[in-house]
Amino acid sequence: MTVRIGINGFGRIGRSIMRIAAGAHGSGITVAAINDIASPDRLAYALKRDSLRGRFAGTVRTAGGRLVVDDRPLWTFQEAQPGRIPWSDADVDVVIEATGRFRSGEIARAHITHGGARKVVISASADDPDAFLVYGVNHDTYEPDRHDVISPASCGVNALSVMAKVLLDRFGLRSVQTSVVLAIQGWQRVHDATSGTSREDPRLGRATAESIIPHDHVAGDLLEVALPRLGEVRYSYYCVPTPIGSLAELGGQTDRPVTAEEVNRAMAEAAAGSMRGLIDYDPDPTVSIDVRDNPASCLFDPSGTQTTADGGVKVRGWFDNEWGFSHRLLDLARLVGEREPVPAGMLVKTAMA
Ligand SMILES: NC(=O)c1ccc[n+]([C@@H]2O[C@H](COP(=O)([O-])OP(=O)(O)OC[C@H]3O[C@@H](n4cnc5c(N)ncnc54)[C@H](O)[C@@H]3O)[C@@H](O)[C@H]2O)c1
Question: What's the 82 CA to ligand 1 centre distance in angstroms?
Answer without folding.
Answer: 14
